[in-house]
């Protein structure tokens, strides 16, 4: 894209003239990234959702836990388009549930919990996964034990494990951090320790290949310590597969939290999350389909946008694809 | 004319044919869905309704209560009364005559020794029998011959029908349970999971907390019954799913305890495969106050035991304020509609036993606030009251169920208005009511400050029910957390009234005493805060015949008489 690729082997031996000022790597990445329409849309949506759940309650100031029985079962405002008799109100543009809780406020508050779990669990996953992957790939002696350990954890089913962990650790965590924070730590912790394995395997594979490359040999010959090699030469090179796996991890964490709330073992029943909203709405989904669709749509769109973002990042971060 | 009557007779015979020609197993399969899965098939080891009712298909008592609350003999020839000489004039003994020729499902004869054994099994001091209150006041049981059982009471027993009547005290086989007495009761897995019984069905396969397959008992006393060859009792899931499986998809025939909001039920009935039937009994949704300290800081074994009184709820003014803040009318309207009425009574029926206690029906937030001020709880800047550095903060637990979570949300809001901070918790119903002594989340362990559930009593006499609140009958580590005095209520005056009730024969006097006891637990002490008298709503398939909805006994009490109408 910037320079035409030389197509004869002879030309490859000559250094082409630099015709433009050097461009930073990230600029190239962005140029490539913005060609991926889905990724661009996904990224935009993710930023929008993140900002909306962080700052939405400053604009929409209704308390999501406030019950208003007189205004229960209000339909979303758009229902009025085809059903002029529907009970709608501009005060609750997305309607209210069967106890009169405002749905818009619930979506905002629920999103905050879901996104926080997603981001925190993803970061934890990446930290554990990268550490284990790098150690296993770089130090031969650790490779066997660590990878067998990875296989072992990989075979653990996450949902039953979470249910057991909730039973065992809820009490002490609740005592130390309060019911909501305690449950947050528990969920993030368990998702974190049960989903780092993919990242570890990817990183290990890449490190195994990279550490035999010439630039690593050169660095070693120049006396760089193992620590230096890892941080200076290896980690930047595994960044692209790592980011892809991170986006997928974010999506998985959001879905796992929703599943837990749906099963009723997650956060307290009055603490809104998208999964909880979904679970509460199921008994009335024939009459009030919007109550299922709203949180369902939010979960789906967020996960989809994260996946697209990951897809675009993979393309953009891979120098071999870049420019095509 | 003759021709006409012949034809008419033929027509009638034809119409009655399905019922008349029914023989055992001719109607194939029937499905029952309980959204709480049975975990054990012994009413003596679990107080859970699901376990009691699942076992009622297999093991039977001497007599049951029909849909009107009347006593019907099952294993007995007739219900003993003073008139027929079965009950002694001085009310100190009752003589049951068993039906002749009864056999267990394994073919061995059913005798009075089995009946006596059942009582010994439950009254064993180390057993932690969940139905011990049914045997309250029993002194000895004699078996003069194979078909006669005489129960002697310590003192005149005006209502001698608590033992061996109703779903909670069926007869178990001596040969099977002989080695399961006392502390070994929980270990007899084979017997507890597959009891041998006299009922219409026997267990073919039992998967705890999942599903039970039954087959017709080949040795059942009526050779034409049951009409169904097999029965599946599926457990687990939730009330919504159970309701849909019967009323919308028709996969099952009976759905137990559809605790669903009225609008949801109405919508399901539009599915056309079944209908929701409700019957009122004594089922009361209530909030139970924990009189002991459930704090996790206490060592296991002392937590939630009488050794440590509750730091906040021991004050009656707090309990009363919590009750005053609740609007029961609104709760009923939102949660149950036609299938519930607000109540302040633990014993809401039968009529003669129902106290005229209606003070709690009016919500009084201001009064509750004033009461808490008086009790020394001062409102903090964050809207939560404190006293001596202790926050007025409660953990409020119940089972997972949409209506209950709605109730929790509403009550939490009202309690917030009086400066009470509430943390909500919901536990899967199969665990909450499971009675597993190893789980911290059962309602018996009560590791919370307040909890909400519903309970009722079988039969028409509240004596055993009220006798549950005796000092010492609370769940505790030494009884493997079995016991019925969930609140850990203890008052010698109340115990004296239990004894007095057990010695009073005249109906009017009994009713007066029962009302007094009811008031003592509710409006005098606010130990139990009743909310709603619930009708039992059952989903019944349109093609199932013979089902009779008894709220006084097991829902499945007359399973032998069910048949298919198509």
TrEMBL record, chain A:
Record localization: Cell membrane
Residue ranges of the TM segments: 39-62, 116-139, 151-169, 181-203, 242-267, 292-310
Bilayer topology term: Multi-pass membrane protein
Entry keyword set: Cell membrane, Membrane, Transmembrane, Transmembrane helix, Transport
Record InterPro entries: BP-dependent_transpt_permease (IPR050366), MetI-like (IPR000515), MetI-like_sf (IPR035906), OppC_N (IPR025966)
One Pfam family here: BPD_transp_1
Record domain ABC transmembrane type-1: where: 111-310
Any Gene Ontology CC annotation: plasma membrane
Cleaved signal peptide residues: none
One GO-annotated biological process of the protein: transmembrane transport
UniProt family annotation: Belongs to the binding-protein-dependent transport system permease family.
Protein's recorded name: ABC transporter permease
UniProtKB/TrEMBL annotation, chain B:
Gene3D superfamilies in UniProt: Dipeptide-binding Protein, Domain 3, Periplasmic binding protein-like II
Signal is among the record's keywords: yes
Keywords: Signal
Cellular component aspect of the GO annotation: ATP-binding cassette (ABC) transporter complex; outer membrane-bounded periplasmic space
Source organism, top-level taxon: Bacteria
Alphabetized PANTHER family for the sequence: MONOACYL PHOSPHATIDYLINOSITOL TETRAMANNOSIDE-BINDING PROTEIN LPQW-RELATED (PTHR30290:SF65), PERIPLASMIC BINDING COMPONENT OF ABC TRANSPORTER (PTHR30290)
Principal location: periplasm
Localization per Swiss-Prot or TrEMBL: Periplasm
Signal peptide boundaries: 1-22
Pfam family, one: SBP_bac_5
Family: Belongs to the bacterial solute-binding protein 5 family.
Domain Solute-binding protein family stretches: 73-470
GO molecular function: peptide transmembrane transporter activity
Protein's name according to its UniProt entry: Peptide ABC transporter substrate-binding protein
UniProt source species: Aquicoccus porphyridii
Coiled-coil segments: none
BP GO terms, sorted: peptide transport
